[in-house]
Amino acid sequence: EDQVTQSPEALRLQEGESSSLNCSYTVSGLRGLFWYRQDPGKGPEFLFTLYSAGEEKEKERLKATLTKKESFLHITAPKPEDSATYLCAVQAGNAGNMLTFGGGTRLMVKP
Amino acid sequence: NAGVTQTPKFQVLKTGQSMTLQCAQDMNHEYMSWYRQDPGMGLRLIHYSVGAGITDQGEVPNGYNVSRSTTEDFPLRLLSAAPSQTSVYFCASSYSSGGTYPQYFGPGTRLTVL
Hints:
The structure holds two protein chains of two kinds.
Chain A: E1 3-7, E2 10-14, E3 19-26, E4 30-38, E5 45-50, E6 56-59, E7 62-66, E8 70-75, E9 84-92, E10 99-101, E11 105-110
Parallel strand pairs in A: 2-11
Antiparallel strand pairs in A: 1-3, 3-8, 4-5, 4-9, 6-7, 7-8, 9-10, 9-11
Chain B: E1 4-7, E2 10-13, E3 19-25, E4 31-38, E5 42-51, E6 54-57, E7 64-66, E8 76-78, E9 87-94, E10 104-105, E11 109-113
Parallel strand pairs in B: 2-11
Antiparallel strand pairs in B: 1-3, 3-8, 4-5, 4-9, 5-6, 7-8, 9-10, 9-11
């Protein structure tokens, strides 16, 4: 069974204080790992797709990396507007388009 | 492009009532899906469709029906609502059912069953 675990569940940062969110996964043949951002009362917003170990993707203050067992979402010098819940999901080789989601990390950035 | 749209945004039902949650996308996406999101449970797949006329069950399909008569629309029907179906429901779509493409989500429907 595919499993995705995100840590920490919640993270409080001061503005400018860089940190990383973790997504550990167990999957039969990873086809892709996805990062989403979700604001309160909204649907998840797509951020990145990572396909293979060693791959990195960047967008503004966010950088996602992938190993064979986990992915990290690095946030550099965060701003209050980066406050959101960040979700990680995996697509397995034998599961078509089906995604397995982690529970998310709720990030709060204080000014 | 409006992307993925969902109606209604909020709904309150009584136990035993039925209703349909609407979902539409204007991106000509082949794949569409329905998720529910509950505190502490993450997003769980209810049903999905790989194209018009083709649907299949996800992880938590009991109590829900779907159909896909057009590429654009993918309604979710609650047959006889139960308090356990109180949740936030998200519809999502993806370019193709083959390959690895991101799913794009709608704004959600918050459903309360009394």
